[in-house]
Each structure stands twice: as C-alpha cells, then as structure tokens.
Amino acid sequence: TPLQRRIEFVVRLVMALVVLMSGAILAQAALEGFTLVRVVQITAVLSGLVPYGLFFLIALAYTAGAARIAQSGALVQQVNAVESVCSVSVVCTDKTGTLTTGRLTLAEVLPLGGRAIDEARAALGSLARATTATNPTTAALAELPGTASPVRDEVPFTSALRWSGVVTDAGAWVLGAPGTLTAHLTGPLPAGAVASRAARGLRVLLLARAAHPGAGLRDAEGRPTLPTLEPVGIVVLSDDLRPDVAASIARFRAQGVAVKVVSGDDPRTVAALAVQAGLEAGEPVAGADLDTLDDAALGALVARTTVFGRITPEQKERIVTALRRAGHHVAMIGDGVNDARALKRAHVGVAMRSGSPVTRDVADIVLV
Question: Which secondary structure element, helix H or strand E, spans residue 154, and what is its range?
Fold first, then answer.
C-alpha cells in the first residue's frame, strides 16, 4: 500500500543516516582519540542500528534460504515461507498429480449391458474426442478408436459434480464416478467390479448413456442434472506413484511430520496408493461423512485419520482449518483448481509446476 511504501522509504533512509553517522563518529574518534564521551557516542549510535540490523538480517536470511531451496528445484514465491516450512508438523497432500505422476493410462475397459468390448471402447473414444474441456482422463481415452460427433451441449467435469457429459446426435453420454452415477442407473453394476479394482489403487469410472433418446444433461433452469442412465462400460485407469514419493514420506516420518492424503478420488483407491507410498492408511473416510460433523467432531476425526476420499474443495479447506485449530503448522500440496482454497488456508501452500495456473498463483512455493 502507499503507506507501507512510505514507511519502507523512511526505514531505508534512517538506516543510511545511521551508517553515515557511525562512520563520521568513528572517523573523528580515529583522528582525535577515544575518550569516554566518544565511546558513549559510538555506543549510542551503534545501539540504534540493532533493530534495523535485525530487519535487514531477516530479509537476508529469507533470501539466502530461497536461493538454497531453488537449487533443490523449488521456487519460493513468498519469502517468509522459508521459515514456515521449517515449522510444519502436518503435510496434507492431494493424490493425482502430487503423489502420482498425473499421467493416466487406460488399464481396462469392462463392457456392460451385453455390449461387445469394441463397442464400449469406440463409445469411450468418441466421447473423448467430443469433449472440449480436456483433462488427463480424456487424454488417456483419446487413444481409443472413435469419431468426433457435433456437440449440442456439454457439462465439464467438476469436483462437485464428479461427472462430465456431452449431448450429441447419438444421445447424452456421461462419464463419472460409479458412486455418483449408480443412483441413476437402470440396473445394478456387477458385484465387486468397482471395489476390487479400486482396492488395487486403480481409478474406476463408469461410462453411461441416457436411457431415453431425447434426454439432456440439464434441468429447466440450466443446471447440470443426471437423467436415467444405461451403463455402457467400466473404465479402469492407472496412475503410477512418483519415483521419490516413498522416500519423501519416509523422510517426513523420520522428522516427526504427519502426512494426510486428501483427494477427490474413491477412498479405496486413495488408501491403496497411500499404502504403496509407505503410509499407514487405516480406515479411509469419505467426504460425505464430514458434512454432518461440527468443528469439534471434525477435529477429532481429522486427528486420527490419514486418508480422505471424495473430498470437495470446501471440505479440503475445512480439514486444513481443523488441523490449524488443533495447533498444527500445516502445509498443503496440490496441483488442481480444487486445491486452491486449501493452499490459501494452510500456513504453507505448495503447488506443482504441472498444476493449474490458479494453484501456482496462490502457492507460497512451487515445485519445479
């Protein structure tokens, strides 16, 4: 602000004047000799330097720390994060793109409803080509054969919806979390098909199409809504852990820093990957379980839980707030727009270079 700029100018001016006065007094003392009065004068002037010197040394220490951290591949955007990082007692981290590489690969397509596997694969490929809001999921599916049809309407994926869809001449197609779409399906999914794959750390999605040819993906007011759906196929994607994740988590544990994984994916998938990374996952908690908890109950749950799945951006922020309320110094690591609120709320926000521009902008540190 203008006032801060003026104060900064005054501080710099006083520092310069004190240095000049000190030099003048020392020069005069060297010429005339050191008397008791001269020693008192020198002491008074040098004592006035102390607060300004501390101000200067703190800024110098922050800058030196930022330079050293840069050598390890991290860009410090807020210099006081150099100090905050040293006090962190809990690290909250997203999963996709943070613990994992974020490069999804198609592992399996399980056709449903008596469809052939080629039909399900072609439908996935066509959906990926029709989607304009690309993401790692559609990028992985774009390798499948398919044709791009004219899009009459599109609902992009968001953390709140947990599904995306397009309306083409062939009908309305939806791709999303099985737990979100199940209530709208015309029939049940194969028993254990989702759970068995999620337990192996795989990301499981469901492809479905509207049961009625004229059905859309919005209500009368234009808000996204799901129609009655026919399941077309289960889509299984794999996302490998980053090579250095296990060593990093072991280093955190050795330094007494707790790690909590907070993700929008299925809790079973998140827990399986957390175990692979070397964490004791325990009993994972789904986001729906947090909605009915007050602050005290949430704090108790967060204190004993390591893995959170199906978490919305607002819930991520609540988890970070609960940890801060308990006296922890919290760092949050994320890469997506859905992590931005939690990064702002944490003492130290850490973003990935591969993340969204919004997340990098609000972060204190960017891992490059």
Answer: strand 151-155
- Asked whether 212 and 194 are in contact (CB, 8 A), the reply is no
What's the pLDDT tens digit per position in 223-245? 999 999 999 999 999 988 899 99
Q: Distance (Å, rounded) from C-alpha 285 to C-alpha 267?
A: 7
What 45-48 contacts at long range (C-beta under 8 Å, 24+ apart), as own/partner pairs, is 45/18, 45/21, 46/22, 48/18
- What are the pLDDT digits (tens) for 183-206? 899 888 887 888 889 888 889 999
The first and second tokens of residue 238, run together, are 């794999």
Distance of CA 121 to the CA centre of its chain: 31
Known catalytic residues are 94
Asked whether the beta carbons of 334 and 343 are under 8 A apart, the reply is: yes
Say whether 74 sits in a helix, a strand or coil: strand
What pLDDT was estimated at residue 7?
A: 85
The sheet with strand 348-352 has its strands ordered as 74-76, 365-367, 348-352, 330-334, 90-93, 258-262, 307-309, 285-286
